[in-house]
Amino acid sequence: MPPPPVSSKIWRPAMKPPALLAVLLLLSLSFLLFLLRPTSPPFLLSAQTSGTDRRRLSVYVTDLPRALNHGLLDLYWSLPTADARIPASSDPDHPPPRAHPPYPASPLIRQYSAEYWLLASLLRPGPASSSAVSVVADWTEADVVFVPFFATLSAELELGWGATKGAFRRKEGNADYRRQREVVDRVTAHPAWRRSGGRDHVFVLTDPMAMWHVRAEIAPAILLVVDFGGWYKLDSKSAGSNSSHMIQHTQVSLLKDVIIPYTHLLPTLQLSENMDRPTLLYFKGAKHRHRVCTIYHKIKAPDICTIFGQGGLVREKLWDVMINEPGVVMEEGFPNATGREQSIKGMRTSEFCLHPAGDTPSSCRLFDAVASLCIPVIVSDDIELPFEGMIDYTEFSIFVSVGNAMRPKWLASYLKTISKQQKDEFRRNLAKVQHIFEYENSHHGSTGSAPEDGAVNHIWKKIHQKLPMIQEAIIREKRKPEGASIPLRCHCT
Questions:
Q1: Nearest 5 degrees, angle CA 178-CA 181-CA 182?
Q2: Using only C-alpha atoms, what is the Rg of the chain?
Q3: What are phi and psi of 276, to 5 degrees?
Q4: What is the sign, positive or negative, of the torsion defined by CA atoms of 116, 205, 134, 452?
Q5: Residue 485, Cβ neighbours under 10 Å: how many?
Q6: Distance (Å, rounded) from C-alpha 157 to C-alpha 207?
């Protein structure tokens, strides 16, 4: 005969009210922890969260002479003559103004000022200087090693004030090459480089000409570039095959390198200041792109000029297609004081701003458009953009293929179909991301500092996201047998 069922009268006294509450509380906490468990990889979480040093990117700053960074600014401001590449009347820095900004105001150079602001974020005293990075005194404790060489300013000094015409293509008599050589010799002699083969070292190379002569030697490092223009070469072996359009991966990769924004040259327009925009589409710049190709022909590198030339050809053809379209303004001009004022007015009174390729796939014009709340129209099939994965460019930009843009009347007709509601949403989203592309709070000011959630911290966060892949490459390199060769792999996107 089975035992009688246990009645509720017997069970209730066995569980006292305090014990019941404790059990329910424990179950509730367990369920809450289950809901709050992390769903993203740990390195993404740490890269996007500020707070303790444990979650920051640990950076060791290589000890380089001042002459290789801030000393180059001293040299620049001591130059008595104007930049040879532009009319003397258009150089805002020569003769030097009394209260000059920390980095040159010349548009040819200022757009590349990321090197200055990144180093500044590592030199400012106090733990609150950056929530994304922590500077360490011992290189063995660092996640990455930052090389504080103003590579772009060094190249620009030679290009604009070189001792002899065409000296950039040669090593003899090239002050920039001497500086490049000194940096590489110092950095590669340090045990930190030998430990990783340079894979955890960070170089800022914003200008297409930066560290031109030693790129192969620093290729394993983390390179901060504005795009990959000039870093690819056509695969000559496939020129006669079906894969003639394939670009072979040479020295750069989205796996290890970071695309960073240009410094915009126009002042930021707040959403509350936005006015009527009677112009449909605006572009101001040079129709013909000769600067980079001329330089590369001089240094006997026509293959790279060919890559750069594609963007120039697209711009020229697009110009011819768009110049007579109603509601479209296409202006030629140089970014001097007059051109700057014209650009401010044009971008602030236009719904859309055209962004075709120039010397390279991207330019500072894109970030001028963002600062001006002018919806970017990006004409490119292969552009790389800063901070992708952190922000979604489709929320505030229009992307158009080169093929469609070249069709007569197609682009203007397409832009006219975008409703006012859609344009207003694009502009609100532009206002939300403006700060992400800011290197300094006080634009063109000598006391400006990097905004807390601006470009500098986003760059450090992006580098932090690369760490697992970098560390894996270092570990894999250690176990490679002597004499083994690893074939070049295709970089596919």
A1: 85
A2: 27
A3: -60, 145
A4: positive
A5: 6
A6: 12
In b/e form, how buried is each residue of 412-441, taking b as 16+ CB within 10 angstroms? beebeeeeeeeeeebbebbbebbebbbbbe
If we measure between CA atoms, which residue out of 51, 59, 48, 42 comes closest to residue 131?
A: 51
* Tokens matching residue 463: 């580098």
Contacts of 100 (CB under 8 A, 6+ apart): 77, 93, 446
pLDDT, position 165: 61
Q: Which residues of the chain have pLDDT under 70?
A: 1-54, 125-130, 163-166, 230-250, 289-312, 335, 337, 358-359, 441-450, 486-493
Q: Which amino acid is at 53?
A: D
> pLDDT for 358-384, tens place per residue?
667 788 999 999 999 999 999 988 889
pLDDT for the residue 381: 85
Q: Are 281 and 412 in contact (CB under 8 A)?
A: yes
